[in-house]
Fold this protein.
Amino acid sequence: MQKIHKPWIKLKENIDDEDYKVINELQDRCLQTDQIALKLELDYKVGVRGDSSKGVQDINEYLYFDGELLIGYIGICSFGGPLEVNGMVHPEYRCQGVFTKLFELVIAEWRRRSSGSLLLLSDRNSESGQQFIATTGAQYKHSEYEMYLKKDVPVTTTDQLTGIVFRKAANADAKEIARQNAIYFNDEEEVNADDMPLPEVEEKRGMTSYLVEKEGVIIGKVNLQLTSKLGAIFGLGVLPEHRRKGYGRALLLLAIKKLKEANAQEIMLQVASENSNALDLYKSCGFEETSTMDYFELRS
């Protein structure tokens, strides 16, 4: 264990390119040592640029340094629902209260915002992460599988895809996207469309929302993200009245096709562990589980 000699903490609303670099380096070190998954959303976050004229509105980034070396990090993510928290500590600087101190600051910020529940994330195989969350009193809420495309995509017929188009969502579609999210993800907390990130703003950060239409009628939605060489599929869903017609498979295959056309060398997605229908669909299209992320909820 390395003793901390020159501790200091940097608090920020958004990360910049330099922050991204040092956080990513710490993440690589932790992943190599622990062989677990983290959900820090760094590629998404680095695209966020706040309005500096308004000053700092919220603190989302918590960086703990020893001199010039980043030894701890916690980040807050907000996608229109409960705040999500995930973080890490340098393997050689653990058991010295680094994560505890950062978490205290996160809790203070959460209470300041009065923003409903707080979700704490931990890879199921992270013994230290699971143990820390147990000390907070947070209650288990749900789990998500992270899945990567490992096999060849099934051959599709023209009939399966005929008439299905992806329409890039505009800001005017925010309420429709919020409505569909409420249907697909059955969140107990009602999400106001006004609190949702606007599609055109999200696109500038690398996350593109699509409404999926069949002969001019909206049948579902999907979000696609391309960062470096990794393509990601989020929030895919088909409206209840259009299910059991093969549209889910068609949406997924079209999403894969679009990411491959954008030169994604790997493709991943996340799915709730209890969503057996979606899990079976993804497996049948060549995806395999690589990790399980557990979500625990703190309520104010």
